[in-house]
Every structure is written in structure tokens, then in C-alpha cells.
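hey so u asked for the seq, here:
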Amino acid sequence: MALATVLVLLVSQPAEKLTEPPGIAQHVGAFTAPVHLSVRMNIAVVLVTLAAGTERALRLRNSRLLDGGAG
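ran it, C-alpha cells below
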């Protein structure tokens, strides 16, 4: 769940910056990010993402059910 939330947050911010110039906004439309985070919050989100991704990867590697060792 944390990774999906971070995906929405971290994709929407660059999308807003990319659609900001008048030429692009005229053709595509301007996108406004639903949430604006401070630099500290962006760093915290990146750290949470790294922790969640690492936890997910380690859990997949050591799962008897996913590795076919169960049964």
C-alpha cells in the first residue's frame, strides 16, 4: 500500500512541472498535483519507499509459499 501511495505522489509532482510551460499547457493542458510536499516530506517519502521496497523484496525471497517449498 505504501508503494502505491508513493507512486501517486512521486509521479504527480514531475507531471505538474512538465505541463507547466505555456506551450505544453496549451496543447495538453496543465496538470495540478493533488498534494504539494515540502523537501523534508519528499525525503521522508523516498526513505519510506526504500524501506517498503526492501521489505517486500526480502519477504518474497524468503517465502516458502512463493518459492514452491510448501506442500
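Residues 39-61 form the longest helix (23 residues). The chain has a mean pLDDT of 79.
lmk if thats what u needed
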